[in-house]
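Wed. Picked up where I left off yesterday with Cytochrome d terminal oxidase subunit 1. The coffee machine is broken again, so keeping this brief.
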Amino acid sequence: MELDIVELSRLQFAMTAMYHFLFVPLTLGLSVLVAIMETVYVMTNRPIWRQMTKFWGTLFGINFVLGVATGITMEFQFGMNWSYYSHYVGDIFGAPLAFEGLMAFFLEATFVGLFFFGWDKLSKVAHLVVAWLVAIGSNISALWILIANGWMQNPVGAEFNPMSMRMEMTSFFDVMFNEVAQAKFVHTVSAGYVTAAFFVLGVSAWYLLKGRHIELARRSIAVAASFGLASALSVVVLGDESGYSVTHSQKMKLAAIEAMWETEPAPASFTAIGIPDSEARETKYAIHIPYAMGLIGTRSLNHEIPGIKELVEQAEQRIRSGLVAYDALVEIRKDLKNIDPVEKARFEEHSGDLGFAFLLKRYVEDPRQATEAQILQAANDTVPQVGPLFWAFRIMVGLGFLFILTMAYFFYKASIKRMQFPRWALWGAVFLIPTPWIAAEMGWFVAEYGRQPWTVDGVLPTAMSVSHLSVGEVAFTLAGFVLFYSVLFVIEMGLMIKYIKKGPYMDTAESEQWFEQRGRIAAQPAE
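Structure written out below (tokens, as returned):
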């Protein structure tokens, strides 16, 4: 792959975004788990639950601070590397991000401070309210960011204005309640809950293996297993909803994920596994599950699902339609004070395909001068790389079912078998700690890489979105981000390992005293 300005800018954003998302899911899930633990403490007044809240809250705080640092630097790139994107769609994309800052980030940032420094200054109930406000703020923050991202996947509630040469919002309601954004939100948040549950489960299992902090570890496993099982089940259900929304909004992405070269007649089958061959445009050794894709993608058994070849033909038609819109736009721009109503009507009829004409700018300055070969090439450019998408999706799905089985096992052991965990299971929980992050990164890879060649699907090609920078300038900033993020990674891992090894150190004496008293009271009847 030639590392030109577009590819370098994509590489930089991919690196920073995927690194930032190492912190996000743990923040989403751990904030809720900590709030649940404090709720139990307020209801029972048992000091062990306050100790648990403070211990897991400390790890949450470390992750939260470093997540904020990586998120802020990531946002700089919109103006630095993607200035034309910011100019072209900033009116729509910027609105949810502004709400995220005003409604969510300030909320969680303010109450995070109260959570850590308000233990001795607030009542139990007031501090519990603070804990839940931190959790709510974290999740609302994710909502607004995913509304912005969902609009890039399914650009509703906006239209192109030939006077300003920009996309402008026509309905904030449509942007906010975009079906893709809502499906992505619930799926992403559930994945974050699973991540936090496995983190708590794995660390607690390590304590049991070492014979340390037994009471805290056992209770933490009970909370993590029940919370994680519900979350893992919801990830699968809500992931199915995401698949259904993609069928309507991003047919090419769905076809690439399934390596579906030919249109799949009803009832469409699901390709469980196979070897996609992009050169031959076929999937070798494919194993199909009958009816499954029809149920997932169309909620029916009587609708076909278009394949890559048919979608390329549709893209070619939309490119030709977009050329009509582009030509009309050029005529309109010649005299904005006296717009020809014929040209205006011609533009409005084909304006929905204008973005497809922009695909030709990769090959020719004026899309109207494109050759037939360039039009065909642009149509083929709408096909993302099938192999990576095919396998990334299956890794994500396979891990999802592994999460359900793991959490079901620990839930059974915690609730039915009175916390009797074999050592192999505890070691398994430790080694499975990274897997939810792998699944989450695979999910984002599918979502973003599958959208190519579009920054905003069907509206703005990635090749048009970049800033006018040199390759050297982008390479320099990329190296700077790699260095900066590497330092943050070392700090994150160092602090996490330090405090996990240190274990719970707050309210330890009070918790131990409570258990000693409980043991003496329990022993009295036998004496």
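Quick read: Residues 5-253+386-505 form one domain.
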